[in-house]
Amino acid sequence: MELKQINRTQVLVPSMLASMISISTGVYAQQSAETNPPPDVSELETISVTAQKRVENVQEVPITISAISANGIRDNDIGNITEVSAYIPNVEMDATSPFAGSSSVLSAFIRGIGQNDFAFNLEPGVGLYIDGVYYARTLGAVADTLNLERIEVLKGPQGTLFGRNSIGGALSIVTSNPSETFGFKAEATTGSFNRQDVRISADLPLSDDLLTQVSFSSKRRDGYQQRVRFPGSENFVNDIGKFNTVKNQTSNGDKAGQENSINGRFKALYTPSDDVSITFSADFTETDETAAPSSLVAVNTEASLASLYNTCISLDVATLDSIGLAAACGARGTVGTSFAGANADDNPNNNRLPIDDRYITGDPDLSYAAGSNFSELSAWGSSLTVDWELENDMAIKSISAYRELESSFGVDNSGGPFIMVDTSFFMEQEQFSQELQLTGTSLEERLDWVTGLYYFTEEGSLLDTPIFAGGLVQVYGPNDLKNDAIAAFAHMNYKISSKWGATFGIRYTKEDKEFEGQQKELNMFGIKVGFPSALYPDQSDLTRVYPVGKNTLSFSDTSIHLGAQYHIADDVMTYASYSQGFKSGGWTSRLTLPEPNNTPPTFEPEEADSYELGIKSRFWGGSAQVNAALFYTTYENIQVTVNRGLSPFFENAAEGEISGAEVEGQFLLSENLYLNTSAGYIDAKYTDLKEGALLDLDDKFVNTPEYSASAGFRYHIPQNAGSEWVLLGDWAYRSETANISENTPGTNQPAYHMFNASVKYLSADGDWEVALRGENLTDKRVIVTGFQNIDVGTTQVVYNAPRMWSLSLGLRY
Q1: H helices of 509-633, where?
Q2: What single DSSP character describes residue 604?
Q3: pTM for this structure?
Q4: Which of 290, 448, 700, 798 has the most CB atoms in a 10 Å sphere around its CB?
Q5: What is the DSSP string of 725-753?
Q6: Where are the domains positioned within the chain?
Q7: Dist. CA 24–CA 21, nearest whole Å
Q8: Rounded CA separation 259/285 (Å)
Q9: Nearest alpha carbon to residue 682 among 665, 661, 698
């Protein structure tokens, strides 16, 4: 059966592309024959991109790229990078991760490939680049859209030009450059949940050859999930605040889902000569908000730790001793007190609430959680970019960058008035990168080429401090990591004739990793329930479960890109490509018991080989644009996060195949009416499972809906005095989507439709505007992410925000 399905796909893909090419060719033929193109329509906005390390019209680049300009970002009120995925087919991005609580984690997937875990020892599957600088951690990568020129979403493996960990694709963000004239922009927004946003940007030219720009934004919004006291919980024993954790399980406020951040950027452009330009940029982000709103949706009281906990609080010491559970229920790690016999003189039931389903509220905006509820991030960085135009149509570019981040975050994942599953973390990281590019044009301008060298280094640490089942298990996991990588690359576009072109790219990468895991289980629960103490890695410290010593890994990879393009007409290009990519391997760090032979568990790099056929077309005098692509990817050594008891384990679980299609269209139907549409289809499936994998062949890939679609319009209503009203609306659809690898029931995101709309008034001279916007107009609540802890028996999810409104006033000078 599977072989027949593969054969049908291989037959279907070329036939679908042939149909699309014939449709576009027909449209172009009609345009050439001047048969009824829309009258009196201006052209669509032309967007230039740097996907191939040079400035090019996006329609001339033989790569599937979805580009959103500054106008599109402003019109759709896009506040951070994750929000663009609603408008792009086969792209899914969230701002949080299972069991993390932080809203600063970029969980990005393109065409079924990505990463939804934040741990330092794991790599992203979609590379994020801001002004050419790579952001290595998914934590802190939810980039604000402060004063951007455009966002480029490159689909498919980008192993040659963008390198490792861009196996699914790349997000390239380009910030605005300083202007030659003084300018000032400001915007203030108020709205639902006491929203208070401010954005300010000023262009300050200091001289003809030194231009500067300052940008700042502040975002404030109350949380939309209310935390309330469970009725009568004050009458029961509660150990919150007594454990050795990042922030001692303190609850930061009585609401979750808050937004509270500031962002700033300074940019200077110095041009000492016509041939040299130097750009310096510095930015910072500060976030201090409550955790993402976690909701308890299921409890399995027969799970091992839930059952043991309930037994411990229900029986007296003598009975527990008679059934061999006195030690397991005894004095707990850093807390010191015992479940067994606590307050036994006056309360034989131990005066504690049990683990069961009474804490399920059934309301995504209401929780009984009383534990961790914080998300803090401090990040900053600077870069220096030097562009030097040489003779003979060549140029050198140097990009030097340094970045630091520090973040602590935690969330009560159980939704109860005492600790069932409480996870908190602290991460710090610093990185430095240096890239050198040499670009040129040769062979009478028929060959465009770029070659370069890249160096990257980072180091830092991650501290894990989860608590399970009232402290039966208490994890304290400091981890130290260091990564180094070097690469050399070349990419060439050759014009064979006026219609035919060919592309070739290659990149070699070598990386070295160093890791020391020091994870402990402070309650020594394993020993208490009979795990042999002789198997623990450090006999002088039986709380330690991770093998002693530093560990090293080295990986190397050579990725290539091959392509051919054919111009059916000046504004219609078809292309075919083959590209490779890989995502680095590493170690699993989350252990609660020693590993066999005290060997750190590792996982190998992912690899992808992708084939693509596409078409890019403009017609009707530039007032219409339709781009489409078909793709097929073989996906090897798929890395997944699976729940092995208490510990989320990262491992190579499967091989897979991904095939699909997507189409995007933009249309100026009149001088005043603009329409955009998109549709995507993905068939992502596992073809083989590794031994011991906790997956089924029919499980859905994470963050990979089979169908995605969107549509939007912008309608201008001119006024007599030169001002105008602008009406905007957009719709997005996603079919059912898995949020975790095991596809646990109750954690999948159901199919949904989402609607937004806004109305703007623009002044005649364009120096001010007012906008009223409504988001999620139908108040649709869907699951954004989820997690099941098998041993504790709890399943929790995070829902999207409810319907919200906002009112903005913008000023320009």
Answers
A1: 525-528
A2: P
A3: 0.92
A4: 798
A5: EEEEEEEEEE--BBSSTT--TT-SBPPEE
A6: 2-304+356-812
A7: 5
A8: 13
A9: 661
- Measured CA to CA, the distance from residue 216 to residue 693 in angstroms comes to 47
- Cα→Cα distances 747→294, 609, 703, 718, 761, Å: 12, 30, 12, 47, 42
d(Cα 435, Cα 405) in Å, to the nearest integer?
21
780 near 750, Cβ under 8 Å?
A: no
Q: Which of 397, 562, 452 is nearest to 161 (CA)?
A: 452
Q: Choose among 47, 49, 55, 48: nearest CA to 439.
A: 55
Q: Which pLDDT tens digit goes with each residue over 291-325?
A: 999 999 999 999 999 999 999 998 888 888 899 99
Contacts of 368 (CB under 8 A, 6+ apart): 227, 228, 229, 230, 233, 359, 361, 415, 416, 417
Is 2.40.170.20 the CATH classification of the domain at 2-304+356-812? yes
3-class SS letters over 138-203: CECCCCECCCEEEEEEEECCCCCCCCCCCCCEEEEEEECCCCCCCEEEEEEEEEHHHEEEEEEEEE
Tokens of 807: 């009112």
Burial of 70 (0-12, 13-18, 19+ CB in 10 A): middle
Q: What is the pLDDT of residues 429-488, one digit of tens each?
A: 999 999 999 999 999 999 999 999 999 999 999 999 999 999 999 999 999 999 999 999
Encoded tokens for 44: 């669509």
4 φ, ψ (degrees, to nearest 5): -65, -40
Distance CA 95, CA 103 (A): 5
CA 576 to chain centre: 28
Q: Are strands 126-130 and 169-175 parallel, antiparallel or unpaired?
A: parallel
